[in-house]
Amino acid sequence: MIAYIDSFRNRFGVESLCRVLGTTDCGFVTSRGYRVAKTRSASATSVCDAVLIPVVHEIHQTNYVV
């Protein structure tokens, strides 16, 4: 959801996007919640994923792409 808002925030504004998106499976999206999420430090899982995903892509390219 954050990435979606990021991609359209310059065109529509955060408040407008959050109002239109309304309720999600995770709860209600607010402009305040968006800003809190943007300032939160990355989780351990996100940091680990950032390191491992390129390695997995390289292994896949090496072994499975014809």
Description:
The structure is a single chain. With 66 residues, the protein is mainly alpha-helical. It has one domain (2-64). The chain has helices at 2-12, 14-21, 31-39, 44-64; strands spanning 23-24, 27-28. The chain has a two-stranded antiparallel sheet with strand order 1-2. A hairpin with a 2-residue loop joins β1 (23-24) and β2 (27-28). α1 (2-12) crosses α2. The longest helix has 21 residues, at 44-64.
Tags for this model:
66 residues; mainly alpha; two-stranded antiparallel ribbon; 4 helices; elongated
Helix and strand layout, with pairings?
Layout: H1 2-12, H2 14-21, E1 23-24, E2 27-28, H3 31-39, H4 44-64
Antiparallel strand pairs: 1-2
Helix pairs in contact: 1-2
The general outline is elongated
Instruction: Tell me, rounded to a whole number, the average pLDDT.
Output: 86
Unreliable residue stretches: none
Which class do the helix and strand fractions yield? mainly alpha
Describe the structure in brief.
The protein is mainly alpha-helical and 66 residues long. Helices cover 74% and strands 6% of the residues.
